[in-house]
Amino acid sequence: MLTFTIRRLILAVPTLLFISLVIFLLLELAPGDPMAQVPLTVPPEVKEKMRLALGLGEPVHIRFWKWLVQFFWIEPQVLIDNIFGTTFSAGDLRVISWQTRSPVMDIVVQRLPQTLWVVGTAYIVAIVIALPIGIYSAYRQYSWFDQMGTFVSMVGFSVPPFFSGVLVIVIFSVQLGWFPSIYDTTLVVDSWDTFVKQLQQMVMPVMVLALQITAQLSRFMRASMLDNLNQDYVRTARAKGLSEYVVVMVHVLRNSMIPVVTVIALGIPSIFGGAIITEQVFKVNGIGQLLIGAIQANDLPMVQTLTFIFAVLIVLFNLIADVLYGILDPRIRYD
Amino acid sequence: MLDQPIAQIKGLRVEFQTKDGPVVGVQDVSFDVNPGETVCIVGESGSGKSVSSLSLMRLVEFGGGEITSGQLVFDRREGGQVDLGDTDQALMKQIRGNEIGMIFQEPMTALNPVFTVGRQLTEGLRIHKNMNKAQAEARAIELLREVRIPEPERRMKQYPHELSGGMRQRVVIAMAMACEPRLLIADEPTTALDVTIQAEILALMDRLKRETGTAVMFITHDMAVVAQMADRVVVMFRGNKVEEGTVHEIFENPQHDYTKALLAAVPKLGEMSGKNYPEPMKLMGAEDQKIEPIKGSDEVILNVENLVTRFPVKGGLLRRTVANVHAVEDVSFKVFKGQTLSLVGESGCGKSSAGRSILRLVEPQSGKVEFEGRDILGLNQNELHKARQDMQMIFQDPFASLNPQMQLMDQVAEPMRNYGLASGSELQDRVANLFDRVHLPRSFMRRYPHEMSGGQRQRIAIARALALNPKLIVADEAVSALDVSVQAQVLNLMMELQAELGLSFLFISHDMAVVERVSHQVGVMYLGRIVEIGPRARVFENPQHAYTQALMKAVPIADPNQRKSEKDLNFKPIPSPIHDLNYSPEPSQYMEVAPGHFVLTTDSGY
Amino acid sequence: MTDAAKKDPLQHSSVQQEAEKAPRSQWRDVWDQFKSHRGALSGGILFLIICVGVIFGPLVYWNDAQYVPTGRDFIKLRDMRPIYHALWDPSAKMDWAYPLGTDNLGRDTLSRLMFGGRVSLAVGMAAMVLALLLGSLVGVVAGYFKRLDGLLMRLTDLFLALPLLPMILVAAVLFRESLSKSIGPEGGVFVLIVCLIGITSWMPTARIVRGDVLAIKEREFVLAARSIGTKPDKIISRHILPNVLSPIMVSATLGIATAIITESALSFLGFGFPPDFPTWGRLLNDAVDRMTLFPERVLWPGILISLTVLSVNYLGDGLRDALDPRIRGR
Amino acid sequence: ERGSDGQVNIIYWQAPSILNPFLSGGTKDVEAASLVIEPLARYNSSGEMVPWLAEEIPTTSNGGVSEDLTSITWKLKKGIKWSDGSELTSADVKFTYEYCTHPEGGCAQVTKFEGVTSVETPDDYTVVVTFGAATPFPYGPFVGGESPILQKAQFEQCMGAKAPECTDANFGPIGTGPFVVEEFKPNDVITFVANDQYRDASKPAFSRVLFKGGGDATAAGRAVLETGEFDYAWNLQLAPDVISQMEAAGKGKAVAGFGPLVERLMLNNTNPSPDLGPDERSVVRPHPFLSDPAVYKAMSMAIDRELLVEIGYGKAGKVTCSWVPAPEAYAISPEGCNVQDVAGANAMLDEAGIVDTDGDGIREKDGVPLKVLYQTSTNAVRQDFQALIKQWWSEIGIDAELRNINASVFFGGDPGSPDTFQKFYADVEMYANTFNGTDPQSYFGNGLCDKAPTPASQWQGENISRFCDEEFDALHAELSGTADMAKRVEIGQKLNTIIFEKGGMIPLVHRGRLSAHANTLGGVDLNVWDSELWNIADWHRAE
Ligand SMILES: Nc1ncnc2c1ncn2[C@@H]1O[C@H](COP(=O)(O)OP(=O)(O)OP(=O)(O)O)[C@@H](O)[C@H]1O
Ligand SMILES: Nc1ncnc2c1ncn2[C@@H]1O[C@H](COP(=O)(O)OP(=O)(O)OP(=O)(O)O)[C@@H](O)[C@H]1O
Ligand SMILES: [Mg+2]
Ligand SMILES: [Mg+2]
């Protein structure tokens, strides 16, 4: 298992380098201009100067190389400096965002908490809801509960968040006035009141996101449970005189969780990737909003860095999912 | 109290609700199980054996079945008799595992793969006997010892897949015995196991029964096992009980036609002694059967010399080969035209690998395979493609070896399509002829594999193998998965084809009785090597190698008078065939003890 | 027990009896099984209705989806409410000629829904088919040919990591002009969008198919096929693909939904069809701002998208069962 | 009293990414920064200049502007303190000039300093700006929200190429304004607290400002008008029915102000045919049919501008046919501008011999069918306009193919993209443009022949229509040399007329800026000539 992990990690390096190159070239090819949001009143010569000041005058390969150095060499130093108070990175140029002229990583670090809070909670909520639904639907296959579950999850799956998001805002903020329609990212949770406030502002985005994730996860859980409910060992467990609860919730569930856990693990990068539309609808201003904003403003270093971090997470969690599989299922041995 | 039966099944009827309306699983089945007695229930697949036993546990309900009438009276340890048919599930929970234990057919799947053996063993104990963890573990270890599992402490922490099939089945037995039930139901506990392991398990159950006085309800379709185990026998046929009697009555004086047919279909070890050539079995219901020995010829069709097949074991960061599985090690034999060479041996000894190596379905390491004078190992892909036309294979599992998504006609036609032998209506005709050949109605051509019984399926596999008019067929456990009656038909079919078409067979099996019936030559394999090879009569009547002798001893005989006891058995676990890269095995050397009868003189590992 | 069984107890007489029945045609079987699946049948019928509605609706319906009333008509005809609105608000502005009302520019909602459905369904199906083809291809090849496995799986990682929007921009730059020259502006955008959605959504299918292929490859019938001289391409097409159909079907049903929604998100961001070219996603999106005033404008496209997804899902369930001979036999 | 009214919440649906307007130039950034850093003089809501950090507005009459119009002398107010307690001096002003004109700095506001040859500081409170040539309007430097004064002490180390490295300074400039940055989360939210060094001891009334960014205009409007979570929402580009429905909730109201922003249809004066090579496409004049006055006039006549205003902008829009509709004096109102005349348009085309010869409902001119590609950026109102105009044009036999392009591509000047508005690979395109301040001279320059974007100029250039007219060029030259206000206005009107009559563009709507504030927010005075938040020091809670 260890060698498997190490081997895959080593393999990941060229993969990621290649991915970063592809992303870079893609962004390079994409039309758009960092000056797009500068008002039309600013004349083109000035824009051209501003472009040069951003380093756009240099050839492509040099910029790619610079980015590589900044991302893989300087940023880790900055990280070390921040943790240990050293000064390795002093004076080195970090990956700088074109929109804000500040280090990209700083903004990412600033954004991450919101995203993790909202998308992460949604993910957890979805898991907490989806698993029981999936389990029960499978256990009572074709019952009305199961049919309802199918129906609701399909609807949940097919309703785009720009609709469901606005819908809950209209209902809960505008009509009922229960929750704020705009997420306050400056809120510091340090007391019961602020905690309640935080909960209130998280309810709606979490609800919208969780609906979609629940829809998919519960389908998965159901299928996996169905696979296992008909296995011979379930009969063995019953023949031992175990209660239905233990049979289903211990024996069957433990086996059914194996594929589901890997699916969950595979979905984790998307937590960090944020939820572009939902974040936008609720003004959560997390990573997803950062990315879409950066794409719209053609802030290439930002887009490149964010997508690349995302790629790293995807590759990493692919690996984690495989390893988890090996851990959860004693039959699987990676040599 | 003593002569009162532990379980009485009266007029049991079980129905299953399916899409096409209710299906009757068993109808009006009645029999008793007395204390300390082993009742064997026999019958072909689908005859309702499992359904009866599951009803007794009230587990049919979880499979969609329903007990629509009848009583299942069970004599509880305390509290007298109850009708299990209408107890609630809460009470059933206390009875299951505690007063009735059950052993299931498939040791590979009957255990939960993700829990340790210890956990699964102690579960029942902790519920029914209110033991704490330590007590339960102590008892579990004791149980493992009772079922003769070596190193029980270590096994407790292992997962099922880390144990061999035999050990797993013992764990299942230990689990069923854990709470000392009054009734033990064993649903085909040995069907999936090797002869040697089967013999051990049967002996073990017999001993446990005698030691604890538990009543046993033993379900099987193997008459030899019945002869070995039963006190009383219940014969079932298509959901009904057709006959009941003591084991001697049944074997010596069967009343019902079905029972008679069943007994006729069982190949008995020793039946062929004195005959030099194999001949088809005499079956009930097939009147105009001609039983003639199949002689074959002396012409060598396949010559295998020093065949070595190894599978690499990869590891390390670079996934280099770190060791090899020595699946086939220096094996030589000859197959004669129109004759059958059988390879026998325990699971994992390399029989299949040898068979596949000959067709180059796995690539052998070295050696020589000469088929009709052509060196098979030297062919390139195109030539090999052509050569395979003359060599075909039939696989063990008739369920797995047919594509579930293809109509039978297409599956049989596929080889001819591949070689462009026929097309259009000619192809249709040839397929139809093949169906005739294997005695399947032509109307089956449009069916799918799942619509066929196992035997019929295996005939399709045979038809497919025959489609190219091969000269040699490698039959890898071609009948192992079949019911006795079906097995007999398939065996007869194979022999018929051999007689008519002059086919040669390389017959791979672990069933000594079957091998005795069909072979001209027999090779006994152990750990990748042939330890003994020679004409069938000699090898069976005069086994020379220690392993062959042990193997012969293990085979149960379908005769209640020839029971075996545990102490006759003497098997060592097979050593690992995995060796590291610089291991070089010594070449096999044989001694010719009689003309054509060779025995391995070098160390075989046994 | 029947007489036949008595005479020949070893024969499976039930099988024998069946054997006398006339051979059934395969498609007949599929249809029979499909019919017996209640959900599938209703899903299928619903889907058919939707398809017929969007394909033939505009041909027989009297209003034109792109027509904007002008002059004095404009004020009169805009913001018309659906006729059922009269049930609770008889004073609302409505007209039987516009059964579902009109939008803020006076375009007829029903005809826009029908017209938009054509586009959405076409995009959804085409993109789904493309994604399935790609996903199955990659999955099968990766699963079957061990040597390509690592490479293809890393490729999957790459595609998972690629951001959709820049890709769309790049594709638009590279291909839009030439495509719209050869197949017209709408056709060009259609091909572009379908390709993009397809290219960015095949990865989950590939992963699942690969896993199944890995398992099926080890089944004996594949070995058997090899021993009877079947070439690898035929092994894949005859033996492996039919057996991974069921996960592919599941991906397909989810794929349609994702494709329809992705298309709407693209229109939303300005990368989609020309603005006067309605699609369900765009209708939904355009109406969100006036959701409280004119709830019907969001509800109808929303309901239609959901219904399509739902019906396709049930349809897929039924088809999967019907195409699997094992289930069909039961 | 300072800080007595608690917190005010402002929402901008575009989030500020930096608080240094010299590095960004985006309106959102300029306006967010205007809470902190201030110019010497500002425009008030009626477009008049008011002294801000300066004592008074220098003019020729008070001697602040030299007679030859080549220098202007500003006197700073005394005793103005930076928020760190140090005093504002003329050195800071001079530094700001140096900062922005540094060749490697990429300053977005460098045009403000166009023509400036030097900035002198005779003493701590005097700044003399010298121009290379006579400058009739010398109020570019240090006037308005785009040209505020930076603190020398803070930005000294951030000149030129180092500018982006000073993240702390760019995110938290020290200023003289009513508020001080407390925390800046780029592209998300800014919190400000009242500046206790602010020159007016009773201001600002609010102690804190929460400045939230992101989302979309609908959500911003909803947050102010419907849920009341926010007090002020900027630039609500929403359809009027949506706005009025939101206002119906009674939590706040929308206010509009009019600058020179005009939504217009640009007519391509060159041939955009894809068959032409990359160096000729949208370069060679004339357009196959748009150059015919009958065609573009008919196109203009077929448009119902009043309806467009009603559909798209409501009270934030006015019918206009002027390129420069504000300041009002420059506006023209050609006859028939506010009425739709489809019949007239048809007659005009018929008369010009542009008729439908092949019976497909589309007219042909010299065999070329009048099919136009009509593009704009993605935006709900613009798409509605497209649909309406397409319909109207179809009634005069002109077929329009619509295309909408993502704004960041459309307005991004990427020479590699075929979809930018500068490339104009279409026959007609619609967008809005404006200019800063009140003097349109350089804006009128956007119609000069040599400002047309070409491959040679990397497709940069403001003459998007590729309009070219000798008379126009001559008049513009005359305008540059004229200081007399009445004369300037007269020339301006002529220029407006030429561009309309000769097919440079079809102005559609004079757009105002529509912002919304809560009923409880007092002191809002919507200003379109400067930062909307220009008078935030006067904002207060109203009952
Ligand atoms: N869950 C079920 N649903 C429908 N029919 C069933 C079910 N289980 C069993 N049956 C039917 O009941 C009959 C008896 O089956 P049973 O499993 O008892 O056979 P068996 O004698 O144990 O066969 P085998 O030797 O193959 O185990 C069969 O015809 C079978 O088709
Ligand atoms: N593809 C393979 N890769 C690695 N090892 C293999 C492979 N196939 C077989 N082996 C190993 O080779 C040995 C011989 O296997 P083989 O299948 O030939 O045994 P067998 O006698 O046919 O057993 P059975 O009766 O169970 O079929 C076993 O140890 C098995 O684990
Ligand atoms: Mg059974
Ligand atoms: Mg084998």
UniProtKB/TrEMBL annotation, chain A:
Extract the Pfam families matched here: BPD_transp_1, BPD_transp_1_N
State which residue ranges cross the membrane: 115-139, 151-179, 199-217, 257-277, 308-328
Cellular component aspect of the GO annotation? plasma membrane
Topology versus the membrane: Multi-pass membrane protein
Against PROSITE patterns, the record matches this protein to: ABC_TM1
Which residue ranges does the record assign to the ABC transmembrane type-1 domain? 112-321
Q: Which UniProt keywords apply?
A: Cell membrane, Membrane, Transmembrane, Transmembrane helix, Transport
Q: Where in the cell is it found?
A: Cell membrane
Looking up SUPFAM superfamilies in the UniProt record yields: MetI-like
InterPro entries (UniProt xref)? BPD_transp_1_N (IPR045621), MetI-like (IPR000515), MetI-like_sf (IPR035906)
Q: Which GO terms describe its biological process?
A: transmembrane transport
Q: What is its main location?
A: membrane
Recorded family membership? Belongs to the binding-protein-dependent transport system permease family.
Under PANTHER family, the record lists: DIPEPTIDE TRANSPORT SYSTEM PERMEASE PROTEIN DPPB-RELATED
Protein known as: Glutathione transport system permease protein GsiC
Instruction: Tell me the organism.
Output: Phaeobacter italicus
Q: Gene name on record?
A: gsiC_3
UniProtKB/TrEMBL annotation, chain B:
Q: Which InterPro entries match?
A: AAA+_ATPase, ABC_Ni/Peptide_Import, ABC_transporter-like_ATP-bd, ABC_transporter-like_CS, Oligopep_ABC_C, P-loop_NTPase
Nucleotide-binding recorded as keyword: yes
| Location relative to the cell | Cell inner membrane
Membrane-topology annotation of the record: Peripheral membrane protein
One Pfam family, please name it: oligo_HPY
Primary localisation category: membrane
What Gene Ontology terms for biological process does this UniProt record contain? peptide transport; transmembrane transport
GO cellular component entries: plasma membrane
> Which PROSITE patterns does the annotation name?
ABC_TRANSPORTER_1, ABC_TRANSPORTER_2
Write the record's keywords in alphabetical order, separated by commas.
ATP-binding, Cell membrane, Hydrolase, Membrane, Nucleotide-binding, Transport
Annotated ranges, domain ABC transporter: 9-263, 302-552
Under the heading SMART domains, the entry gives: AAA
**Which NCBIfam families does this entry report, sorted A to Z?**
PRK10419.1, PRK11308.1
Entry's family note: Belongs to the ABC transporter superfamily.
Q: What is this protein called?
A: Glutathione import ATP-binding protein GsiA
UniProtKB/TrEMBL annotation, chain C:
Q: How does it sit in the membrane?
A: Multi-pass membrane protein
Record's superkingdom? Bacteria
Biological processes, Gene Ontology terms = transmembrane transport
> Gene3D superfamilies, per this entry?
MetI-like (1.10.3720.10)
One of the Pfam families matching this protein, by short name: BPD_transp_1
Bias-annotated ranges (Basic and acidic residues):
1-10
Residues passing through the membrane, by range: 40-62, 119-145, 157-175, 187-209, 244-273, 298-316
For the region Disordered, give the residue spans.
Answer: 1-24
Q: What PANTHER family would the database entry show?
A: ABC TRANSPORTER (PTHR43386:SF23), OLIGOPEPTIDE TRANSPORT SYSTEM PERMEASE PROTEIN APPC (PTHR43386)
In Swiss-Prot or TrEMBL terms, this protein is called Stage 0 sporulation protein KC
Which classification does the entry list for the species?
Answer: Bacteria, Pseudomonadati, Pseudomonadota, Alphaproteobacteria, Rhodobacterales
